């Protein structure tokens, strides 16, 4: 779909409805989560964790089981996946095995969700600054950003030593610093409870997407209340606020 068709479909060009009282100033910055929000990474993650499980003699899991396990980074996903009683030492050994496999295979089946690139291009055209903040390994985040979003995303930050991962606000704060934005000007977009908590901890409103790794009933249970059913809904939500 072209940018023009996208704008037409949404009828967004002249939307100037007032935003809710929560928002004190114009939103000009969008911080995206990566897995389950801009990229469907589930097949490649499943393959690499299953490879690691097999190497350590543990049972493999299904894609749906991994869907629930991801959100807090690879260590947590492995902790949730290994048999009860597996020691932290064994998990320490599993992480580099996963990383080595995932580094080679993170692009096998991974790609942007339908409509994401169009959304980002339209946001850029409208002057929004954008970043990706993810709990996945920083090297993979940078590689995937470079591959899919380099024309539109200025800042991409993943899990790395010396900075607390989500739901701590630290990576979001770092991204906003790099973009030159303040919390009052930014919105966070993610698919999980970790993202919702991250937005809250960073004092940002959260748009929860419904195409990712969690379902709506669950997101409602944890308190999410602004939903995008498809990427183009984000434009409509932002237009209403601004
Ligand atoms: O790797 C994970 O567990 C989650 O990554 P995300 O923060 O991009 O959703």
What does it look like?
This is Phosphoglycolate phosphatase. One of its GO terms (biological process) is DNA repair. GO terms for molecular function: phosphoglycolate phosphatase activity. It holds the Pfam family HAD_2. The protein is α/β, with parallel strands linked by helices and 242 residues long. The protein has two domains: 7-40 and 112-241, HAD superfamily/HAD-like (Rossmann fold); 42-105, DNA polymerase, domain 1 (Orthogonal Bundle), CATH 1.10.150.240. The chain is built from eleven helices and eight strands. The protein has helices spanning 3-10, 42-55, 63-69, 74-81, 88-105, 116-125, 138-149, 170-179, 193-201, 216-221, 231-241, and strands at 29-32, 39-40, 111-112, 129-137, 155-159, 186-190, 206-209, 227-228. The strands form two sheets. A six-stranded parallel β-sheet has the order 5-4-1-6-7-8, with helices on both faces. It has a two-stranded antiparallel ribbon with strand order 2-3. Helix 2 (42-55) crosses helix 5. It is globular and about 55 Å long. Residues 33-36, 70-74, 77, 134-136, 166 line the site of 2-phosphoglycolic acid.
How would the blueprint of this fold be written?
Blueprint: H1 3-10, E1 29-32, E2 39-40, H2 42-55, H3 63-69, H4 74-81, H5 88-105, E3 111-112, H6 116-125, E4 129-137, H7 138-149, E5 155-159, H8 170-179, E6 186-190, H9 193-201, E7 206-209, H10 216-221, E8 227-228, H11 231-241
Parallel strand pairs: 1-4, 1-6, 4-5, 6-7, 7-8
Antiparallel strand pairs: 2-3
Helix pairs in contact: 2-5, 4-5, 6-11
């Amino acid at each position: 779909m072209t940018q023009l068709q996208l704008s037409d479909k949404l009828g967004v060009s002249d939307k100037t409805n007032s935003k809710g009282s929560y928002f004190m100033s114009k939103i000009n910055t969008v911080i995206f989560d990566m897995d389950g929000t801009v990229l469907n990474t589930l097949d490649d993650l499943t393959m690499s964790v299953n490879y690691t499980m097999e190497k350590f003699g543990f049972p493999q899991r299904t894609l749906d089981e991994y869907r629930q396990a991801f959100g807090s980074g690879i260590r947590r996903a492995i902790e949730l996946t290994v048999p009860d009683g597996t020691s932290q030492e064994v998990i320490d050994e599993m992480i580099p095995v996963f990383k080595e496999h995932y580094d080679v295979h993170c692009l096998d089946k991974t790609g942007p969700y339908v409509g994401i690139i169009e959304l980002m291009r339209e946001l850029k055209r409208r002057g929004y600054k954008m970043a990706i903040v993810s709990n996945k390994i920083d090297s993979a985040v940078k590689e995937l950003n470079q591959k899919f979003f380099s024309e539109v995303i200025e800042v991409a930050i993943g899990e790395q030593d010396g900075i607390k991962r989500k739901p701590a606000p630290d990576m979001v704060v770092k991204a906003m610093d790099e973009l030159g934005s303040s919390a009052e000007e930014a919105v966070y977009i993610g698919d999980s409870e970790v993202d919702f908590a991250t937005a809250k901890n960073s004092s940002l409103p959260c748009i929860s997407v419904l195409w990712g790794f969690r379902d709506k009933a669950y997101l409602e249970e944890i308190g999410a209340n602004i939903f995008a059913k498809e990427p183009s809904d984000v434009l409509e939500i932002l237009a209403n606020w601004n």
